[in-house]
Model the fold of this input.
Amino acid sequence: MMTELLHQKNCKKNTLITDYHTGEIACSNCGAVSFEKIVDAGQESSGLTGEEYNKTSKAGGKISLKMIDMGLSTIIEAHDKDSKGNSLSIENRRIFYRLRMWDRNSRSAVSLKSFQKAFTLLDGISSKLGLPDVVIEQTAHLFRKIAAKKILAGRSTAGMLCAAVYITCRTTDTPRTLQDIADAGNVRKKTLQRVYRYLVRDLDIYPEIFNPSEFVSRISKAVGISEKSERSAYRILEIAAKNNISTSKNPMAMAATAIHLAATINNEKISQTKISKVSGISAVTIRERVKEIKKIGGEIYGQNM
Done:
C-alpha cells in the first residue's frame, strides 16, 4: 500500500476511509490516520455564480491584444477602507487619492484614445466581414506596432486600422478585398490603397497576393451558377496560371472572368453586369481579362469542362 498508516500491532485490515472535509485518510478498523493528506483536484468553488464568480476567479479575465489594456489593468476603488472594512487614516486617504488621480490620467492618454477608437472600429469590421479571431488578434498586434513607431500622428486612425486589417488578411490568407474592407470601415478605397502602400514600405512587409481561386466560391454563390460551372472556373484559373496570365492581375478580376467564361461555356445565362456588381470589378476589366484568356482559347475550350 502506497499510503503509510500507523496501524495498531494486531490490525491487519487495509480498508481506508477518506474524510474530504479534513483531507485525512484513516483505517476503518483501528482508526489510524495517514501521514499524508489528500489534495483536492476538483474545480475551485467559491459559492459564487455568474458575474460574481468571474470577478473573483483566480484565473482572471481573458487576455486580448484588441483590448486597450490587454485585460491586465486593475481598478483602484473609491472606498477609503482597508480589506477588513476599517476606514483609512488621513495620510493613507491622501496617498490613495493621488494614486486614483494618476490611474485616471493614465487611462486618458492620447495613445490609449487612439487604441480605443481603433479597436472599436476593429470590432465593427470583424463582425461585418466575419473575420476569425487570429486575424483580429494579429491586426491588433500590428496596430500596436504601428503606434510604437509613432507614425499615427497626423494620419487617419480609421485608415491605418483598415490598412492593418488588409495586411493581416493577406498574411493569414484570409480572402478579403480592399473594397470589402473599405466598405466595412467606411474609408475610401483610394485612401486605403495609399495607406497600405505606405505601411508595407515603412514596416518592410511583403504579404503574398491572394489566389484568384479563393474568390470563386464566393462569386459563384452570389450569382447562382451551377456546381459544374464552378468547377469549370477553377479549371480555367489553373490553365491561366500555367500560362502566366494571372501574374500581377487583380485576383478578384481573374475569378470574375473565369466564372463568366465558365458560365458561357456551359450555356448558363449569367450577365457580365451581374458578375460585375457582385465582384466589384467593372465590366470593362472583365472583358479585357476575357480577351487575354481567349488567346489560349484552344486549351480552354478543348477541355472537358
Q: What stands out?
A: Residues 110-129 form the longest helix (20 residues). The chain has three domains: 74-108, 111-202, 212-301. Confidence is low (pLDDT under 50) at residues 1-9.
